[in-house]
Design goal:
Layout lengths: L1 E5 L2 E3 L5 E8 L6 E8 L6 E8 L3 E5 L7 E6 L4 E6 L8 E8 L16 E2 L3 E5 L2
Parallel strand pairs: 2-11
Antiparallel strand pairs: 1-3, 3-8, 4-5, 4-9, 5-6, 7-8, 9-10, 9-11
């Protein structure tokens, strides 16, 4: 499985960006795909994730709830992260991650639950 992330960049506070993560390499009957981020000098943290197992579930970190929206392309294993009302604290390298296993709710926010990772895309929020 390969994950290709894109969409990062430089944006002013209050602006928006959309990240994309496309998976390839096999077909998926179920998956969990989402985003983590790591700011300089900080540990990696969970941002948001999308779980597909016939039905859909989404999960968000408290710091982004109400500002970020994660969604899926129904035609292919691609997940989007629409980031609105960005603040400087959102500056980080954003990593796409995927699990092809059936994660339970308590697992979806933990990075070690994911077995595939993308290359990271830089998001910088600055005036």
């Amino acid at each position: 499985v390969q994950l290709q992330a894109s969409g990062g960049g430089l944006v002013q506070p209050g602006g928006s960006l959309r990240l994309s993560c496309a998976a390839s390499g096999r077909t998926f009957s179920r998956f969990v795909m989402g985003w983590f981020r790591q700011a300089p000098g900080k540990e990696r943290e969970f941002v948001a994730t999308f779980r597909w197992n016939g039905g859909t579930s989404t999960y968000y970190a408290d710091s982004v709830k109400g500002r970020f929206i994660i969604s899926r392309d129904n035609a292919k294993p691609t997940v989007y992260l629409q980031m609105n009302k960005l603040v400087p604290e959102d500056t980080a390298v954003y990593y796409c991650a995927m699990s092809t296993l059936g994660l339970i709710t308590s697992q979806v926010r933990r990075g070690e639950s994911y077995d595939y990772w993308g290359q990271g895309t830089q998001v910088t929020v600055s005036s």
